[in-house]
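Reopening this one. Same input as before:
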Amino acid sequence: MNCFFKILIVSLLFANTIGAQETTTTQNQSSTLQLEKPLVNQTKKLALLLPFNLAKVQNDTVNTIADRLKKDKFLNMTLDFYSGALVAIDSAKQLGISVDVSVFDSEETKNNSNIANLIKQNKLDDFSAVIGPFYQTNVEKTAELLTTNQVAVISPLSKEIGKSYPNLFQTITSPTLIRSAIFDFMRSKNGNILAVVDKKKVSVKKYIIDNQKDVRLVSLTEIGALIPESLSSKLQKDRINYVVLETESTVLIKATLKLLLSKLKECAIQLVILEPNETLDTDEIEFANLLKLKLLYPSMTRENTSPEATIFEKNYKLKNKVTPNAFAIRGFDVTFDTLMRLSQATTFAESASTQATEQVESKFDYFKNEMGGFANKGLYILYYDADLTVKVAK
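Same output, byte for byte:
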């Protein structure tokens, strides 16, 4: 969000001019979600509990709002998320969705919040759903306090796994699910799965040995250098060879890439990483080589160039004078998914149990976890294509 608009938003929040608003208009465009037609005659209530921490800003006698925005990353993140949520609310209006949206300052830090007072003073137990707070401990407390009335509590940003409640929905896909998904994908292609794992990556090696027993580990020397024969001897000509590379060592990366590139004429080979690797983005690693090996990796988000995504970006730029960042897109995705589910005849939990949706960057595919709450298994398997784009692997 443009700094001027952030200052304006904070000023409006101080003036209490942003409050409950009903998103009711006539339907004039089609939804991209695989859900039923929205119910335009049934209004439900949604609350956004966002950590603006306005009291701290207002009581800051040293910094102006503009100065604080330059220093306070958490406030910037909150405002960016909020800006995306506002675009989602406006988009819902265009679909004729009737939902009362109220925005509250959760006044939260990692260990404290104003959640209990907000729930009591604003009768949030009468709402259909709540998005937020941001911190895991606070979102768990919210779910606990709203369990009796089964108000859906959507955790928008927390990656932590803590206590579970039947009305708690974790939108962030866990690293464990993301990691296992890439191995499931490789097996679905009848792949010959090899792994080159740096000696420093002890936890990764243990994970593979304990959980991915069919993966064949490539041997390294005592100093952690690649043993070419150990890798080349494990490649198979009649199957696609997936080579998982887990290291930050430029030397090991270069040696592995060189060998794999030399074998491309003999075998089908695809390079795989389990998580983002900054070393691959350095000038020492040729991007062209990653393209040739069609680098494959799992991700919770995707690059989206669809007409719907283009419309979102255009609308966001029109309102905020800047391109949406990751937190703004997250704000849109979580809020719009929630609004669409609330527009259905079913409860939020029933919709979550039966319907997966895709938004600008994220997929929301909920399932009941072992502890009784809901987790999201939405993710993408992506690869570098020869046309210099990142595509979803099929």
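So the earlier flakiness isn't reproducible anymore. For the record, Residues 17-35 have pLDDT under 50 and may be disordered.
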